[in-house]
Design brief:
It comes from Streptomyces typhae. The chain has about 500 residues and is α/β, with parallel strands linked by helices. It is built from 14 helices and 20 strands. Strand 12 and strand 13 form a beta hairpin. The longest helix has 18 residues.
């Protein structure tokens, strides 16, 4: 774990062109930190989780780091905003105990206590059509028996379906997610071939898979699905325990992240959009921003795939147009504020209804009276552009159907947040399109959940990519990197 990192060690050289010069601050040189007498510098382009992680990891090793982010905040697509007196997350984000890199990040920014994990996996699952509540729970038994008791009593599947799920889980455990052949198959066809009924797919496999992959089983790569289920459900007994922020995401990914970057000596520039990258004759990199340029020994390009495509120098990766072939998938979030409490549990998942997952965000948002629920709707291609009025007409009756206490409750606010490009689409064949951290250009590395992390587009994947890029740079610079999360190698 990160502990107390060394303080900041300088800033990269900047060449003034025109306009206001970026702010700088004094600190020790990187050479003084490791005894080499040399000053290693890096520019990180992008202030999402991947970029922030890279910047922290490099700064902790004594590299002078400048982080450039075009938005007025850090955090990428996991952020918060104000709506009147409410502090609203753009979408509900959760992580699992197996998300060890994201847990490293939380520790590094001193925010783990603000996003605690469940003691044990416990997911209430409400079937709207059958008016029945079930739970997915784990016990302290070894894998795969840790879920056996829960599956044996899961009321949303028949006895035969539960037995078939068990057999499919054992078959899934034998797959190698890194096998390229799995990337070309879709998960839905594999499930059907292994005796999974439509009901089993809806009530179990898609219940988990849609939320983690942002795609239904038939649209998801078997390789990515196998990775999710093997790691989350079939690796360690507690791997699938769920954690989520009890404060606004901005407090973690912007506020605490900014504080950690400042303490590490990273120069963070917001509202600073990079327009081009080029390698100079002296081997250093020039990063152009409006009004000036920044020079450094190395660069981490931690932006979405289409933006990375536009910034990559010629020859940096093979077939750069493959980045444009990595499709995106949307997530819709529906926000409802009631005048009274209508949900007693912190969250639940739903079947037999358009509603997928519902979270209580009352305390985190700062709401003092009533209750604020957030509905997270993944794989939302059919509704991402629907008018708010149409979504209100659809989802409010569904919430009343799921939550009897919502009958007669007054809706004080109803609004929608839309992330049209929330994740890369985990479609069959996407694995061969995702590049690794290394490029053909010395000193230039890629980061982002869309790179070849082996994970779907999650906060965990983003952090892992940032660590991988930082490790590659530190290895090339012959700098120590034993402070980094090792499993992200």
């Amino acid at each position: 774990m990160a502990g107390n990192p060394p303080h900041g060690l300088g800033v990269p050289d900047c060449n003034r062109r025109k306009g206001k010069r970026m702010r700088q601050h004094d600190s020790r040189s990187a050479g003084e930190a490791d005894g080499t007498g040399e000053r290693a510098s890096a520019v990180v382009v992008g202030g999402g989780l991947a970029g922030v992680t890279s910047a922290l990891a490099l700064a902790d090793a004594g590299v002078e780091v400048t982080l450039l982010e075009g938005r007025p905040r850090l955090g990428g697509l996991a952020f918060s905003f104000q709506r009147g007196e409410l502090t609203v997350d753009n979408g509900q984000h959760v992580y699992l105990r197996c998300c060890t890199a994201y847990r490293w990040f939380l520790d590094r920014v001193e925010g783990a206590h603000l996003a605690p994990l469940q003691d044990r996996l416990d997911v209430p699952v409400l079937d709207a059509g059958r008016h029945r509540l079930g739970r997915l729970r784990r016990t302290a038994l070894p894998v795969p028996l840790h879920l056996a008791a829960s599956l044996a009593t899961y009321p949303h599947l028949s006895l035969a379906e539960r037995a078939a799920v068990g057999r499919a889980a054992l078959a899934l455990k034998g797959l190698d997610p890194a096998d390229p052949a799995l990337d070309n198959q879709d998960f839905g066809s594999w499930l059907a071939a292994h005796g999974q009924s439509e009901r089993a797919i809806e009530a179990l496999w898609d219940l988990v898979g849609v939320a983690t992959l942002n795609a239904v089983a038939g649209d998801a790569s078997l390789g990515l699905a196998a990775m999710v289920f093997k790691t989350g459900l079939l690796s360690e007994p507690g791997a699938a325990d769920i954690g989520w922020a009890r404060v606004p995401l901005g407090d973690l990914h912007d506020g605490l992240a900014r504080k950690a970057l400042d303490s590490a000596g990273v120069r963070t520039e917001l509202r600073t959009r990079v327009t081009s990258l080029s390698r100079q004759e002296n081997g250093r990199w020039r990063v152009e921003v409006p009004g000036e340029s920044v020079e450094a020994d190395c660069v981490v390009l931690a932006v979405p795939q289409a933006e990375a495509h536009d910034l990559l120098p010629d020859g940096a990766i093979d077939d750069p147009d493959r980045l444009l072939a990595i499709d995106t998938a949307p997530i819709l979030n529906v926000h409802v504020v009631y005048d009274r409490k209508v949900l007693k549990q912190p969250f639940f998942a739903a079947l037999g209804t358009p509603v997928q997952w519902v979270f209580d965000r009352t305390e985190a948002s700062g709401l003092r009276t009533g209750q604020y629920l957030a509905l997270s709707q993944s794989a939302a291609q059919a509704e991402i552009d629907a008018p708010v009025a149409a979504l209100r007409e659809r989802y409010l009756p569904e919430l009343e159907r799921l939550l009897p206490a919502a009958h007669g409750a007054q809706v004080l606010d109803f609004f929608v947040t839309r992330e049209r490009t929330a994740t890369f689409a985990p479609t069959p064949g996407v694995g061969r399109l995702r590049p690794g951290a290394h490029t053909h250009a010395p000193g230039l590395h890629l980061a982002g959940a869309w790179t070849a992390t082996g994970w779907p587009a999650t906060m965990e994947g983003a952090v892992r990519s940032g660590i991988t890029a930082a490790r590659a740079i530190l290895t090339a610079l012959d700098r120590p990197h034993d402070h980094l999360f090792e499993e992200a190698a």
